[in-house]
Amino acid sequence: MTIPSMTMNATPTRRQLLGSALGLAGVGAALRLTGAAGAETVSTRIERPAQALAPAERLFPPGFLLFPVQLPGEFVLLDNFGESRTFGSGPHQGIDISRRDYAPGHPLVACVDGVVDGLRFNEANQGNAVILIDAAGDRYRYHHLETFAAGLAVGSRVVRGQVLGTMGSTGNPQVPHLHFEVRRGPDRTPVDPVPFLHLPIAGVTVI
Question: Are 174 and 146 in contact (CB under 8 A)?
Fold first, then answer.
């Protein structure tokens, strides 16, 4: 997945080097976790060794998606990719995100820089939907929108954080929410979006 921006985080705790050899060698630490779909889910490294009483800086490389619902707020994310459904065919191909109070109309935002590859208008189970495609050819699907952003059209270029529309209940939902999918490559294989989100996020409860 090609995501151009990087996020620099500093750990809140201060670390003191216990061994001078470690400090002189400038040894970093790396952690890599791989999800079931083979996607890199977390990759962090200490950009430079911590000095005494100095915070260690961690660099998160490209790979994380912007949360597709505008923050801040209080939201519930259902970690339900792959679960069986009571309607439709096959397993659930995305995740569901709602406001904690289930109010409609909350802004939805582009998770990547990309182009609008498709707009659906009250189509079957999807309701109103937006499909984005990024430079790598991966697609991101937003279903059940209440409204579309003014001027949004197929071929529109969007940037991370740009409002695409608002959360709604068009299609088959019982409550307003966003059904969000990540589909990778030319075969548009659905993969679990959760490993690509920079969780935990303040105000977002994952269940």
Answer: no
The predicted model scores a pTM of 0.68
- Residue 157 is encoded by which pair of tokens? 């270029």
For residue 149, give every residue at least 6 positions away whose Cβ sits within 8 Å of its Cβ, in sequence order, or none: 162, 163, 164, 165
User: What digits encode the pLDDT tens for the residues 194-207?
Assistant: 999 999 999 999 99
Helix (H, G, I), strand (E, B) or coil at 22: helix
- By DSSP bridging, strand 204-206 and strand 75-78 are parallel
Of 154, 145, 147, 206, residue with least CA distance to 180: 145
Mean of pLDDT values over 63-83: 92
- Place 134 in a pLDDT band, splitting at 50, 70 and 90: very high
Q: How far apart are CA 139 and CA 183, in angstroms?
A: 5
R_g of the chain, CA atoms, integer Å: 19
Which residue segments constitute the domains of the chain, with CATH numbers given? 7-60 (no CATH), 75-206 (2.70.70.10)
pLDDT at res. 148:
98
User: Largest Cα–Cα distance in the chain?
Assistant: 64
